[in-house]
Amino acid sequence: MNRVVVTGMGAVTPIGNDVESFWQGLVSGKCGIGPVTKFDTAEFKVKVAAEVKDFDPSRYMEKAELRKYDVFCQYALAAAAQAVEASRIQGSLPSEKIGVYFGSGIGGIGTFEEQQKLMLEKGPRRVSPFFIPALIINMAGGLIAIKYNFQGAAVSSVTACATGNNAIGEAYRAIKHGYLTAALAGGAEAAIVPLGLAGFSNMKALSTTEDPASACVPFDARRNGFVMGEGAGALMLEEYEHAKSRGAVIYGELCGYGATCDAHHITAPDPEGKGGARALKLALDEAGGYVDPHKLYINAHGTSTPLNDACETLAIKKGLGEEAARACVISSTKSMTGHMLGAAGAVEAIACVMALSEGVVPPTIGYQEPDPACDLDYVPNNARSADIELALSASLGFGGHNAYLAFRRL
């Protein structure tokens, strides 16, 4: 079996539009949540979101392309460009040996909303010929493959909020088992539009707290729903020997992947946390099994919803054992980025890689009131220096999807 390493990363997030600024935002406890600016929320119960700020798509694509691409594709192309550039992989491999595993939970919902309105107001002939290509979820990966001539498998995971982790995990397996030598993997989302906000709000999934500092408070007793985020994350994964032979910078090793389904409910997690615990254990077992829990970091799914955070805490205890769960460090970076949906797993994987390489665990900001159902070490409010050897990234999605990734230092 091949070993798989990370040789490039790219990020577009509510707290920074590249990996360096994203990471500095995390360790400084920067809150990317604020009042929605993209549209008028006067008729909405929800007033805040974690929007991407100061994003300049012209840095990554031609002006003529912008009218063809939904915003989620623009974010995807930007994150991919950063990862490809950092990896310096182009020209080192035949095109057919590099794949793209890139997904989205929702895809081009902004384009859908815009074109539906246009059709109703001006008739079907006014619908853009670029409507369908801009809408469909696979187009983010397709555009990345076209731009860089990556001719290996191009597969788009669509597993709601587990999308990013599933995309990275499936790319990992393709390289581990020898189908590819490298793959660009990740996820993108741009669902902060009226229809998206209304849909999540009306299913009572979102926080109605208007104060940005207390709207997203994972594992805190005051939590009352998640905050929508947006953006993209991309990782260049590569077979270790190939990366080493070409002198690539190696940021860390992806060494485990666990994917399960609760098979329980369309939105609620299994209250016993069995699926999440199994996914955690699968990733940990593939990474080699036992690790000193004092040297383990878990980037939790941590959405700030009443059910998720309690069930996830239980899943961690079941997956690791009670004693080990209390010894490891856990945080939810969604407290800063909001919930980036299909992009969440990808940017949180980057957070894990950076935590390992820098020896710093990002905090769970806004934490004030402990909840008896969430009684582990969530690194409240301030980043913490830690000699961690393994980092687990957790993503859980509507439909019962659970996906864990395991990373370690080389």
Brief overview:
The chain is built from 15 helices and 14 strands. It is an alpha/beta fold.
Explain what you see.
The protein contains 15 helices and 14 strands. With 410 residues, it is α/β, with parallel strands linked by helices. The protein has 2 domains: 4-245, Peroxisomal Thiolase, Chain A, domain 1 (3-Layer(aba) Sandwich), CATH 3.40.47; 258-408, Peroxisomal Thiolase, Chain A, domain 1. It has a 10-stranded mixed β-sheet with strand order 5-4-6-7-1-8-14-13-9-10, sandwiched between helices. Strands 2-3 form a two-stranded antiparallel ribbon. The two termini are 17 Å apart.
Task: Give the secondary structure arrangement, pairings included.
Blueprint: E1 4-12, H1 19-27, E2 34-35, E3 48-49, H2 63-66, H3 71-87, E4 98-103, H4 109-122, H5 131-135, H6 139-148, E5 154-155, H7 163-176, E6 182-189, H8 194-202, H9 212-215, E7 231-239, H10 240-245, E8 252-261, H11 274-286, E9 296-299, H12 306-320, H13 322-327, E10 329-331, H14 334-337, H15 344-358, E11 360-361, E12 384-385, E13 390-397, E14 401-408
Parallel strand pairs: 4-5, 4-6, 9-10, 9-13
Antiparallel strand pairs: 1-7, 1-8, 2-3, 6-7, 8-14, 11-12, 13-14
Helix pairs in contact: 3-6, 7-15, 11-12
Q: Could you tell me the strand content as a percent range? A: 15-25%
In spatial order, strands of the major sheet run: 5-4-6-7-1-8-14-13-9-10
Using the alpha-carbon principal axes, give the shape. Answer: globular
- Which structural class do the helices and strands define? alpha/beta
Mean pLDDT equals: 97
Spatial gap, N to C terminus = 17 Å
Which architecture name of the largest domain does CATH use? 3-Layer(aba) Sandwich
Which residues sit in consecutive blocks of at least 5 with pLDDT less than 50?
A: none
User: How many structural units, i.e. domains?
Assistant: 2
Reading off the top of the CATH hierarchy, the class of the largest domain is best stated as: Alpha Beta
Number of helices, where a helix is a run of at least 4 consecutive DSSP H or I residues: 15
